[in-house]
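tokens incoming
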């Protein structure tokens, strides 16, 4: 008996989202030769999800926020048979679409009582914090970056000033720290980062939070060939802010 092509059905939880929302995608694989066993994987643009194992012929893949392009995105899911389904079903694909949009907002002139984070989103994972801001006042002017430990071994950063979504930051770079590979990647590849500005007040306080994109446009290494090195980076806004919470 020859293997047959299954039907791969791809169903996003929503047809339109903003770039700060995750997108659950339901996938089902069916055919005339019984329940399909195997894995499914979703791709869209430069994003590729982890493989998800089918349970009773179905799985859900959650696409993280900020990894899809601001556009009408095609979501392609590839099915790979395993176990008893090998030789029974062929590999197959299914597609669906979702629109990702970004809506400009007006930020308050004073941002006292807000905290902020500079984050990097890898292609197959959740956003990673690479800097923390505090004491924001007068637009994007920041008195300082707090020294916050992150990652497996921890690293520290201090922002010297952001104004009108442009500014510089001095970061202590720890060579060999896996979390800092994201920082190095963003520097070398002009990767779009996100600055999230949120109220210090607890969620549900009625005060809005915002997120906007930025890129590192210039850098200068201050350290020598040691495990701990300093790098001075220059940031520039790469698009409008959107409201992410109320």
């Amino acid at each position: 008996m020859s293997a047959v092509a299954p039907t791969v059905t791809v169903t996003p939880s929503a047809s339109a989202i903003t770039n700060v929302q995750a997108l659950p995608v339901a996938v089902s694989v069916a055919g005339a030769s019984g329940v399909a066993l195997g894995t499914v994987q979703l791709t869209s643009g430069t994003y590729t999800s982890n493989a998800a194992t089918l349970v009773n012929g179905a799985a859900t893949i959650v696409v993280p926020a900020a990894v899809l392009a601001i556009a009408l995105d095609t979501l392609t899911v590839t099915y790979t048979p395993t176990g008893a389904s090998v030789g029974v079903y062929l590999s197959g694909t299914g597609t669906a679409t979702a629109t990702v949009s970004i809506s400009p907002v007006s930020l308050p002139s004073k941002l006292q009582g807000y905290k902020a984070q500079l984050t990097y989103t890898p292609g197959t994972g959740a956003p990673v914090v690479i800097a923390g801001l505090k004491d924001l006042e007068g637009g994007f002017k920041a008195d300082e970056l707090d020294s916050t430990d992150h990652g497996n071994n921890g690293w520290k950063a201090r922002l010297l000033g952001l104004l009108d979504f442009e500014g510089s930051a001095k970061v202590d770079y720890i060579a060999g720290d896996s979390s800092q590979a994201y920082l190095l990647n963003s520097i070398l590849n002009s990767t779009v980062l996100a600055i999230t500005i949120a109220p210090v007040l607890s969620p549900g306080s009625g005060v809005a939070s915002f997120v906007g994109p930025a890129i590192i446009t210039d850098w200068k290494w201050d350290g020598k060939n040691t495990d701990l090195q300093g790098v001075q980076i220059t940031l520039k806004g790469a698009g409008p802010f959107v409201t992410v919470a109320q």
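note: The chain has two domains: 7-101, 114-245.
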